[in-house]
Amino acid sequence: MKSNRMPLLALVLSGSSVVMAQPASTPTVQPAATPTPAVVAPPPRPCPAEAADTRVYALLLRGNRAGSQTSCRFADGRREILFAFNDRGRGPALTTLARFDPSGLPLSIETNGHDYFKGEVHERYMRSGEEASWENKAEEGRQTLSGDAYYVSFSGAPEDLAWLARALTKKPGRRLALLPAGEASDEPLTARRVETSGKSRSIRLHAVGGLDFQPSYVWLEETGDLFAIVGDWFTVVPEGWESVAPDLLRVQQEREARRSGEAVRRVRRIPVKPLAFTGARLFDANQAAALPGRTVVVSGNRITAVGADGEVKIPAGAETIDANGKTLLPGLWDMHAHPSPQDGMLHLAAGVTAIRDMAAETDTPAKLKAWETGEAAGPRVVYAGIVDGPGPFQGPTKTLVATEAEAVDAVRRIADAKFRQVKIYSSVKPELVPVLVREAHARGLRVSGHIPAFMTAEQAVRDGYDEIQHMNFLFLNFWADEVPDTRGPARFTAVGEKAFQLDLFGGKVEAFLRLLKEHRTVVDATLGVFEGMFTSRPGSVPEGFAPVADALPAQVRRGLLNGGLPVPEGMNQRYLDAFTAMEQMLARLEENGIPIVAGTDGMPGFALQRELEIYVEAGLPAGRVLQIATRDAARVAGRSEDLGVVETGKLADLLLVDGDPTQRIRDIRNVRLVVKDGAVYDPQALRRELGIRP
Question: How far is CA 455 from the centre of its chain?
Fold first, then answer.
């Protein structure tokens, strides 16, 4: 995931889709005869009658109304926040009651309701004198305060960010210790006067540090009250003021571009002379093996020589890097990303030099252009344009199709944007899938995605899918009669409850695997997502993040404690076994020669490192896993001419790691140097910019 401003909102504010499953199996399941309504956003909940002031905010996901926040203020200073939204059948519904001291520090906070995945929320914070105590789904703590401190809600509403920003404005140096850990800062930025329908308000942008890898932006009114939180993915703005959000986002993006430009000058170095790696253990992605004692020369942004030490002529005056004891690899690919401009340094710090955006809109490339030009640090991007159908579970996209003509037009626009792929989402009508496939293939585009509701994975493959996103669809293929509509939470919970029952060596699975092999259907498994969903429990750091958790900013680390799906009573072992079954299915794909790509749908950089570790734990040789993440990814992405292997003439995308990840895949975490398009990045410098400790 990306922007973990608050633990509850991590999935939403990040833009992470983590959206999986539809039904699947051989028979066609027909939808109900009643027409599908448009997406249903929970209506604003009214304040109690005794409230002295009421403010209602619209909550938008990628510009579409998805919910509301009602802010109630009482004469005695109490605040009540009523917050809910619908994100493809998921989303929280919370009520928060809070009291503050005159300086804006919370005296008490109580939040009840349910979280994004419908787990119960009962959170309490209380301060009495110098004693503070708190309890939430993942933490229980008590602390004697030695000075001012602000408790950051674990399951909070967007208003929390404004409360913190307002408290910071009243403190010397605009800094505050955070509870349970960390420190926040505030930087007041641009002031503006906004107008709509004859009304106007004076507002100021604030950059709040200490909650994430990057500043969290919030617009406050002169009174210190929340005006807006705006982003590409998630926006909260007063009802009736939605029209000003794009301009506020533009202001933030300009600010972020300046900040990124300053950062890239600190973390990137462009060699003025050829660069020569000597003594390297070179990962040959074609052989899936490490070759000792190799020299690689880079001139400009191209690899100009590769060979054994002593056999390659090093240009006069070249900068030489002694790579003895280290492994030199092609840059890694994350084949399932949902990037924002703030993600670039996280990707590069982990050696990820190329990604595939799996939910791109036609205006997305302009937002990430700075990565391409070098004005900001970030990977290369290949785009898959997303298409969905209108309805109560529609994805947060502007590209919605309900007719054949709309489907054809959507593909035309994706092709005109120079994207390489069409991604079909969950609410597309099954009868439109062949239309989308036919039109995409006619324009030279690949087709992949979720399996739309009331379809099976088998049908999608027969209709022409080139690739399937998310491993759970392979399981749901066999339960269409039992789980007919998986647009809601069943796309997760059905797998958690039933996966252990599926005979992975039985006739039905064997027949399905033969179909995938015959069609050369690629599988983008995103197993790290499901490890989090099925095996993580509140209060514990997920296994995949344990090696790095203590180095992360305190509030980012705290977000890792959120846990996965709520586990029904008596189902704990079944959920654990579900993930084991997914690992076994991955091994079956590999055994049967079915193409696999490594994508994450998760936190940039770190999630890919874990994804590769999981593949090895599933039984794939480490060298083969690295081949999947380099050569095979470039082939599927249509970039194998220039990327994916270390060969003369290829673009210079490389990473240097301590150790030998072909023998110990965990060594892929030991990144010591990254080259992207010939520019050199120091991973430790990138991490310092992000607040990550060595």
Answer: 26
Give residue 314's pLDDT: 96
Q: What token pair was written down for 231?
A: 């982003």
232-263 burial: b if 16+ Cβ within 10 Å, else e: bbbbbbbeebbebbeebbebbbebbeebbeeb
Mean pLDDT of the chain: 92
- With beta carbons less than 8 A apart as the criterion, state whether 193 and 201 touch: yes
The alpha carbon of residue 540 and the mean position of all alpha carbons in its chain are separated, in whole angstroms, by 20
Whole-angstrom distance, CA of residue 369 vs CA of residue 366 = 5
Residue 39 pLDDT: 56
Mean pLDDT, to the nearest integer, of 362-371?
A: 94
Provide the 3-class DSSP secondary structure of residue 9: coil
Element (H, E) at 201: strand 199-209
Strands 352-360 and 106-114: unpaired
Sign of the dihedral defined by the CA atoms of residues 434, 440, 441, 447, in that order: negative
Type of residue at 79: R
Quick: pLDDT tens for 269-289. Answer: 999 999 999 999 999 999 999
Question: β-strands 79-85, 275-284: how paired?
Answer: unpaired
Residue 496: exposed, middle, or buried by beta-carbon count in 10 A (0-12, 13-18, 19+)?
buried
Q: Give the Cα separation of 306 and 501 in Å (integer).
A: 50
Q: For residue 664, which amino acid is it?
A: R
Residue of 278, 198, 209 whose CA lies nearest to 241: 198
236, containing H or E segment:
strand 234-238
Dist CA 154 CA 559 (whole Å): 8
> Could you tell me the pTM of the whole model?
0.93
Report pLDDT digits (tens) over 479-525: 998 987 878 788 899 999 999 999 999 999 999 999 999 999 999 99
Backbone φ and ψ of 527, nearest 5°? -65, -30
Is residue 16 very low, low, confident or very high in pLDDT (cuts 50, 70, 90)? very low
Kindly indicate the confidence band of residue 22, based on its pLDDT and cuts at 50, 70 and 90: very low
Phi, psi dihedral angles at 404 (to 5 degrees): -60, -40
DSSP 3-state assignment of 673?
A: strand
Tell me the one-letter amino acid at 604. Answer: P
62: alpha, beta or left, given left = phi > 0 and alpha = psi -120 to 50?
Answer: left
Whether the Cβ atoms of residue 597 and residue 524 lie closer than 8 Å to each other: yes
Structure-block tokens of residue 387? 């298409």
Token representation of residue 39? 């997406």
CA distance 312 to 158: 58
Comparing 330-339, 359-368, 463-472, 650-659, the range with the smallest average pLDDT is: 359-368
**Does 12 score more than 80 pLDDT?**
no
pLDDT at 489: 81
DSSP H or E segment with residue 69: strand 64-73
H helices present in 605-668, as ranges: 606-617, 622-627, 633-636
Tokens of 202: 């004076």
Cis peptide before 23 (omega within 30 of 0): no
691: left (phi over 0), alpha (psi -120 to 50) or beta: left
- The band of 38, judged by pLDDT with boundaries at 50, 70 and 90, is low
Please provide the distance, in angstroms rounded to a whole number, between the alpha carbons at the two ends of the chain: 21
**Which residue's structure tokens are 């972020």?**
256
Phi, psi torsion values for 259, nearest 5 degrees: -65, -45
Torsion angle of the four alpha carbons 555, 560, 565, 571, in this order, in degrees rounded to the nearest 10: -130
Task: State how far the alpha carbon of 657 is from the alpha carbons of 520, 633, 667, 675, in Å.
Answer: 33, 20, 7, 12
Task: Indicate if the pLDDT at residue 36 is higher than 70.
Answer: no
Across 547-574, b (16+ Cβ under 10 Å) vs e yields ebbeebbbbbbbbbbbbbbbbeeebeeb
pLDDT at residue 23 above 70?
Answer: no
